[in-house]
Design brief:
The protein is of the alpha/beta class. 42% of the residues lie in helices and 15% in strands. It has helices spanning 12-23, 37-43, 59-68, 81-86, 88-96, 100-109, 150-167, 201-211, 230-242, 263-277, 291-295, 310-314, 323-336, 338-349, and strands at 2-7, 27-33, 50-52, 71-74, 112-116, 173-178, 181-182, 215-218, 224-226, 228-229, 250-254, 260-262, 286-289. The strands form 4 sheets. It has a 7-stranded parallel β-sheet, sandwiched between helices. The chain has a two-stranded parallel ribbon with strand order 7-10. Helix 7 (150-167) links the parallel strand 5 (112-116) and strand 6. The structure holds uridine-5'-diphosphate-glucuronic acid (UGA). Uridine-5'-diphosphate-glucuronic acid (UGA) binds at residues 79, 81, 118-120, 178-181, 200-201, 204, 216-218, 221, 223, 225, 263, 301-302.
Length: 350
């Protein structure tokens, strides 16, 4: 039995991963987070193990959690660009400083660490459209004045610290870089858009469709993303945990390079899918909005990011869900669960 501790494990990826690992043989899962609202929805009436833990002020409790685990998964992070722009210091506090005790506990207790990095570490393309490779691609970020990159910088430094522990032969780990994973329980559906509650693109477009408000295309929606369905992502994560000794001390991209699209195309596809599977009468406008208006100053976009997934392919993993399958599953889940997702938002606000 492999004891897996999910730190920050009740968010979008964590709650879906906990559910998936629980359905596989050979794992005992414990999730630690500020609340278990999303776990409750994901597990429905099934049992799960959860303990409240705030990584920002629970160092000794965290150390005990790490000591009891075989594999420690570090998911605690702010992940929405809206937060990077509004609260850059909170991003550094949670994503960087609060990750250090988890890493150091893994070193102290010789535990395997699965650490969540991000595709955002690669930054911008610099004009080359080669898929990003974990060990070869440069990380190209904009100036400090564009503080959107604070998240990427914090995550990049963590990757380098973990790598350095590996060089010192003090830590076994795998660093994962997910590429725009979408699915049930990602971010919140927000009835009224505001900069404070600003979900990532899929959740914001779904909110627009559900609450009948315009879909907002930032700077025309020309940027490109490769969207990855959550079920593909969690199957990759399980594979990496199961075969961790083969991927030890490596960085691994998780994404679907075949699922590339522009944000403008995402808007049109989602409207079509929503009309077909959810509400035939839906009629929302698509409107353009500047990044200054949407995020405030300091924003700069990743123009395009495609994962090279050779490492995962060598382990036998291939993504299964294409763009339409991915967005159809998302649309149906968001639509059918809109009332429950709304109450989730209210609980989080309390
Ligand atoms: C985000 C975060 O940086 C990371 O936490 C994370 O690693 C990554 O997503 C991911 O999901 O893997 P980004 O893709 O820029 O990065 O986040 P989104 O908010 O989903 O934006 C995607 C694109 O849509 C951007 O070009 C953005 O300007 C645009 N957008 C967003 C809109 O046009 N309208 C919206 O309502 C929201």
């Amino acid at each position: 039995m492999v004891n897996v501790a999910l730190i920050g494990g009740a968010g979008f990826i964590g709650s879906n991963l906990a559910r998936f690992l629980t359905s596989c043989e050979g794992y005992k899962i414990k999730s630690y987070d500020l609340n278990d609202n999303k776990l409750r929805l994901r597990f429905e009436n099934e049992e799960y193990s959860f303990k409240r833990l705030d990584v920002r002020d629970s160092t000794s409790e965290l150390d005990r959690v790490v000591a009891e685990a075989d594999v420690v998964v570090n998911l605690a992070a702010h992940v929405r660009p809206g937060v990077f722009l509004l609260k850059p210091l909170e991003v550094v506090d949670l994503n960087f400083f609060s990750s250090i005790p988890t890493i150091e506990s893994c070193v102290r207790h010789k535990k395997f660490l699965l650490h969540f990095s991000t595709c955002e570490v690669y930054g911008k393309t610099g004009g080359s459209f080669e898929p990003f490779r974990e060990d070869e691609t440069d990380c190209i970020l904009g100036p400090v004045a564009n503080h959107r990159w604070i998240y990427s910088s914090a995550k990049q430094l963590l990757d380098r610290i973990i790598h350095a522990y590996g060089l010192a032969d003090a830590l076994d780990y795998v660093i994962v870089r997910p590429f725009n994973v979408v699915g049930p329980l990602m971010d919140d559906v927000v009835p009224h858009w505001s900069r404070e509650d600003n979900p990532r693109v899929l959740a914001n477009f779904m909110s627009a469709l559900i609450y009948n408000r315009p879909i907002q295309l930032v700077n025309g929606g020309h940027s490109r993303r490769c969207f990855t369905y959550i079920e593909d992502a969690v199957s990759a994560l399980e594979l990496l945990i199961r075969r961790r000794h083969e991927v030890s001390r490596q960085i691994v991209n998780i994404g679907n390079p075949a699922n590339e699209t522009t944000i403008a195309d995402l808007a049109k596809r989602l409207i079509r899918i929503y009309r077909t599977h959810c509400d035939p009468a839906v009629d929302v406008r698509i409107e353009e909005i500047s990044s200054d208006e949407f995020y405030g100053p300091g924003y700069e976009d990743c123009d395009r990011r495609i994962p090279n997934i050779s490492k995962l392919k060598r382990l036998g993993w291939v993504p299964r869900y294409d763009l339409d399958q991915t967005f159809t599953r998302c649309a149906i889940y968001f639509y059918e669960n809109r009332k429950r997702l709304e109450s989730l938002l209210q609980q989080a606000a309390q």
